[in-house]
Amino acid sequence: MRVLRRGDAGADVAEIRSMLSALGLLPSGAAANGSADQFDPFVEQAVRGFQQRRGLITDGVVGPATYRVLRGASYHLGSRPLAHLMSAPVHGDDVFALQERLTELGYDAGRPDGVFGASTERALRDFQRDYGLIIDGICGAATVRALRQLSPRARGGRPVFLREQEQVRRAGPRLRGKRIVIDPGHGGTDSGIEASGLREADLAWDLARRLEGRMKAAGMEALISRGREHGPTEAERAKFANEAGADLFLSLHCDRNSSPRAQGVASFHFGNGHGTTSTVGELLAGFIQRELAARTGLLDCRTHAKTWEILRLTRCPAVRMEIGYLTNPGDSRRLSDPAFRDVVTEGILIAVKRLYLLGEGDQPTGTFTFADVLAHELAKAE
Questions:
Q1: Number of other residues whose CB lies within 10 A of the CB of residue 231
Q2: For residue 167, is pLDDT > 60?
Q3: What's the per-residue H, E or C state across the chain?
Q4: What is the pLDDT of residue 209?
Q5: Selection from 344, 254, 255, 338 nearest residue 294 by Cα
Q6: What is d(CA 131, CA 100) in angstroms, rounded to the nearest whole number?
Q7: Which of 7, 30, 65, 239 has the fewest CB atoms within 10 Å distance of its CB?
Q8: Separation of alpha carbons 49 and 382, rounded Å
Q9: Nearest 5 degrees, angle CA 251-CA 252-CA 258?
Q10: Which of 358, 226, 234 is nearest to 284 (CA)?
Q11: What pLDDT is recorded for position 45?
Q12: Which among 213, 235, 223 has a CA at the least distance from the CA of 179?
């Protein structure tokens, strides 16, 4: 599809208007006052509202990611058959509703993300077997009726959170043996942001190598998602992490803004606007954000839930960091200093350690050091 923005017109814009109206995001008065096929200010405002709700980049532009989620929002459970398709995964609000329903009934469909994957199919087959239905892994009319007839075994309580937290607890407090994929953003012909004589891809690569060295020294298995001169897609990076069986995925980026006053560090984890989040990813993003803000003096721009591919497609907990604005003189000056980049990578490593400690034997934010981590690892090994 072509990217649609304010000022465009045509049948594809009319489709966008229709979907926004059906969701109650485009007021009837606005629809009546504007042309049925015009991407006017009312449509742009409605798109921005939708993007903000669904954890998308809030730019008022309908690209492939926004269109996919907008299209998926038009489905409800039972409006179409659902199945696991490897070549073209089915996604939408109906898939999310199925995942939540299976979870309520005590089946582990994985993290509710609105994508019909292998874990959803497995949970659905288990439900069909237990309820005496045809075990085909397809959510058709008979399966939907059965899902609606049963009372949930549990409601609320965040069962996905409890499962993910238990996985972290079982992994133990030691870093040794943990497999981490470090993802330096951009690469190859995509240099990312270029400002103040710095290139985002080069900074991300340098940060990744520094973090890799510290993680290996702590006994971790650190893998980098790309070569120095390569720039895989987000889907390819997620696939790399999934096939590697990663425990965590850390994506390194810098930011930019048209205003040179924009500055700071922000961290992102998966969250789809339905109140569903990658709970361990959210915990890790919080640890990273607090450590980096305390250690670097960068403005704390907080953590945010997003549905970006790199967060949605990665099966393990994933965090994307935007470490400083290259368009800000102060941030870019700091990032150009290798010693500052050492502080950043140490903060990230400490945040990972805090995640696995689960609050046991922890220290105040910004005080735990790399030497403390190594001492803790050696003490546990004895």
A1: 18
A2: yes
A3: CCCECCCCECHHHHHHHHHHHHCCCCCHHHHHHCCCCECCHHHHHHHHHHHHHCCCCCCCCECHHHHHHHHHCCCCCCCCCECCCCCCCCECHHHHHHHHHHHHCCCCCCCCCCECCHHHHHHHHHHHHHHCCCCCCCECHHHHHHHHHCCCCCCCCCHHHHHHHHHHHHHCCCCCCCEEEEEECCECCECCCEECCEEHHHHHHHHHHHHHHHHHHCCCEEEECCCCCCCCCHHHHHHHHHHHCCCEEEEEEEECCCCCCCCCEEEEEEECCCCCECHHHHHHHHHHHHHHHHHHCCCEEEEEEECCHHHHCCCCCEEEEEEEECCCHHHHHHHCCHHHHHHHHHHHHHHHHHHHHCCCCCCCCCCCCHHHHHHHHHHHHC
A4: 98
A5: 344
A6: 18
A7: 7
A8: 55
A9: 120
A10: 358
A11: 94
A12: 223
> Burial of 27 by CB count in 10 Å (0-12 exposed, 13-18 middle, 19+ buried)?
middle
As a whole number, mean pLDDT of residues 138-150 equals 94
Strand pairing partners for 325?
Answer: 255
Structure tokens that stand for 58 in this block: 């809030």
Q: Classify residue 382 as exposed, middle or buried by CB count within 10 Å of its CB (0-12, 13-18, 19+).
A: exposed
For residue 183, which of 254, 235, 251 has the smallest C-alpha distance? 251
Q: Which residue has the higher pLDDT, 266 or 55?
A: 266
Q: Which residue has the tokens 């607090």?
A: 290
**Predicted TM-score (pTM) of this structure:** 0.83
Lowest mean pLDDT among 52-61, 148-157, 210-219, 245-254: 148-157
The pLDDT of residue 30 is 54
Q: Identify which has the larger pLDDT, 122 or 169.
A: 122
Q: How far apart are CA 274 and CA 48, in angstroms?
A: 17
Task: Give the model's confidence band at 183: pLDDT under 50 very low, under 70 low, under 90 confident, else very high.
Answer: very high
Residue 212, CA atoms < 13 Å, CB-side half-sphere: 17
- What are the backbone angles phi and psi of residue 358, rounded to the nearest 5°? 50, 40
Cβ(135)–Cβ(126) under 8 Å?
Answer: no
